[in-house]
Amino acid sequence: MAKLPRKKAEEMLDQAIQYQNDAIEKFHEKLSTLMVTTAFYRGNQHGRAGLRTWNPYPPNHSEANETLNYIRPFVRSAVSDMLRNLPNPEVVSAHSDPTAMSKAKAATQLANSFLRNGVIKFETLYNACLAAQIHGGSWFKVSWNPFTGPSSRTLKTKESKKTPGIMEPVFDVFGDPVYEKTFLGEIQVEHCNIAECLPDPTATTEEDLRYVVQLKTYPVTRLNEMFPDGDYFGKEIQWQTNYRANSGAEDAIAVADPYDGGAYNGSGKVNDQAELAFIFEKPCMAYPNGRQIVLHHEVLLHVDRLPDFQFPYILLKGQNLVESSLYSDGIVKDLIGPQRSINRAASKQREMLDRVVNPWLLEPRGAELKMDELADIPGSIVTYNYGFQPKYIDHPPIDPSTFRYQDNLITVMKDISTYSDVSRGDVPQNVSSGRALAYLAEFERGVHAPDVQIFKEAVTKIMKHCLLIAKERYTDGRMIQMLGPNNEWHTKIFRAEEFDFDHELVIEPYSGAPNSRAMRYSEALEAMQVGGLSDSPDAERFRRIVGWDYQGRSTNDVDEQHRSVAQSENAQFKVDPFSGIRVAQEDNHDIHIDEHNKFRISHEFRNLPPQIRQMLDNHVAEHENYRSQQLQAFSEEQSLLLNQSQGADGGAPPPADPGLASPRDGGAGLNEIPETEGMANMAAMPQMQPSGYTQ
Predict the structure, then answer these.
(1) pTM
(2) Which of 105, 244, 281, 563 meets the CB 3.0–4.6 Å disulfide criterion with 256?
(3) Four-residue CA torsion sign, 576, 577, 578, 583
(4) Cβ distance 479 to 493 under 8 Å?
């Protein structure tokens, strides 16, 4: 990008500084809350929020400070509830022709592959969900990383000093040849906590968001490599190495003040690192392609449009949304009160137990006890003056009501969090019926349904961003890993024209599976009793009605596999028609013929050269020939059985052999036993001749 005029660049610098300061000021208002919620999740629950750090209470030997951290398991339940409901989005094309439908399906497969091939890492989703439940929100950043993805090595060479014009290998200090590694690049999805990504303070929704300020620290040596020519105006950069506190501190929150205070070192040298502010602004009337600005304090380093024309940040909200607020409250905030009460009750129990186990000793004046003889050792001898016998004070036993009080507080936390025993796979007391468990689980899933749907929508936005970046960055001929039906991987040659990148991803309505093994067993048993686990059309309709097969996908995995193979063959014909795609006897020829015929009536096929069209015609004819042979063999065997059954006594035909091969499944086995009349009709069918087939 060409350099901006100095006056325009200075205007952008002033505006960027204002954006940065406004975002930091807004962040300071939330800092104390963030410290409290983080500390309580991590179990540092005896303390208070200071100006910049979490300050533990000083130790008091006369009082117990017990911590029974019930908050962490509730947070883990909430995170698990999100992560077991990953979306299955689908690209819906605006056109119904076979080519458009094929492109939409390819884009759908690519989008869902991002969740499995390492682009969207599970750990990234986990960390984001965890932060959202603790802090009320977290951010995803979707961008292009040119230093990852498929790579290749080439030998580094230089011109020979002895023989000019001749290139010779470069060797390192150990005498080994040096290789240069080049990458194709790959889409990168990162998690950023809300102390790292500071949003536009005027925004109350993600749609209202104008910009995000992301703060990141780098070693000064790395910064010098990133900006070898100085700042935007060519001036040498004086890096200020004051930066925020270490996020891994055990006694403080994972965030600290980005600029003022924090963990500044008086020398100004903290691990020789400096902080950059990356400001990403959405497209607007003034900047139709958006813009990104990089600052170091008040020094302008870089200005450009948005990479790939996409605003890279996506917000994930936690539970308990707040009206007119960009972030939610999360799950931790409401649990702090009862958690404190639990800790106080546990501390009092500990103090009472200590007094019972180690009671007070009454020592009369003149007893002259030797305290070193009071060691807790069986058989110890304690000496004292006669007539001045010491004795222990008997403390009353611990009141059982204190334990009931603690149990009541745990029940309160379950009610507040809306995560009961059922959500964690435990069977509640006095509940034994599988149907009752299912109703309880369904009710609880209904409570969490809006939060789950928000999570699905956020992940779907990530997948859409990945598709748009793939459209801009993936080059034709690149090998990509695609997830097909039945979660089977296959390698595909990327061709941008084969994908629909222009239409939206649509996700299914919320639905969740039962969480408890007991509930799953009960529901499966009931479904089996009504025939809901078979592969019949009625069973599929039943499962869709009750929400077990809400996507309406076929349960016949074998048929789906055959259909996927046939579709891959169509794609291969377009890329490399001379690769020699073979017809296998075990193919489901009806499905293959159906899929190939869909492709043969498309405009894309009709525009292919005649010799290539003939190759696919021959391929279909070979399928038809195999099908004809299977039909003939099937009808002959059925006729033989029919003739045997109508013997001298004219008795009824014997039951058909369930292992008899069927032409519908490539000879693998009979799906349904035909009636006698159907057998006779099958035997009378004329033999099909392959069209255009040549041996």
Answers:
(1) 0.68
(2) 244
(3) positive
(4) yes
